[in-house]
């Protein structure tokens, strides 16, 4: 998924070097993390 997102951002963003990074989530509110899963689930 990250590779597809990075490709899309590079092709569509106006910056020469857009920020495209992945960071691990070590801790978070369970309801918030579930909402992220719901938003990005294929």
Write down the overall mean pLDDT: 93
Q: Number of helix segments?
A: 2
Rg is: 13 Å
- What's the number of structural domains? 1
Order of helices and strands: HH
Uncertain regions: pLDDT < 50 for 5+ in a row? none
In total, the number of strands is: 0
Beta-strand residue percentage: under 5%
Distance between the termini: 10 Å
User: What's the story with the biggest beta sheet?
Assistant: none
Helix-residue proportion: 40-55%
Outline: elongated
Going by helix content, strand content and strand pairing, the class is: mainly alpha
How is this structure best summarized?
This protein is an all-alpha fold and 42 residues long. The chain is 52% helix and 0% strand. The chain has one domain (2-40).
């Amino acid at each position: 998924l990250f590779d597809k997102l990075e490709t899309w951002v590079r092709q569509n963003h106006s910056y020469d070097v857009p920020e495209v990074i992945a960071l691990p989530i070590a801790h978070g509110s369970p309801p918030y993390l579930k909402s992220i899963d719901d938003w990005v689930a294929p």
